[in-house]
Structures are given as structure tokens and as C-alpha cells.
Amino acid sequence: MSVVVVLVYLGITDVNTENFKFSTEVYTDQNVAQAMRESTLEQRSSAIRAGLVVLGAPLVIALGFAIFAF
Questions:
Q1: Transmembrane stretches, by residue range (predicted)?
Q2: In whole angstroms, what is the distance from residue 58 CA to residue 26 CA?
């Protein structure tokens, strides 16, 4: 998962699914950039919280397997 995040951040790959698009191309759209600048604190915190869940879930799963394996 971490490798995918780094590859997307570097612009090497994109992840397109039915529900979302994980890409750096979204930042080239001026309307999206303006909406991000005008977002409220609540919107920003919920986006950060969702990102932490997505990035933290594989870590928690791996730690769980490590604990059970021990």
C-alpha cells in the first residue's frame, strides 16, 4: 500500500476504481484547487481523518498478524 501511495505521489501511476480516482492529475484542474483553498476546517479534518484510516489500516492489519504469529 505504501508503495502505491509513493508511486501516485510521484506521478508514476494512477489508481482508478468505480468509486474513486487516486491520482495527482486532480490538482491540475483549477476548480478543484480553488475548492480546496476554500474548504472549511471541518472538511479538511474529515479528509485527513479518512486518509489516515486508509493509510493506517494496512499497518494495523500487519501488526495484528505479527502479534498473532508471535
A1: 46-69
A2: 25
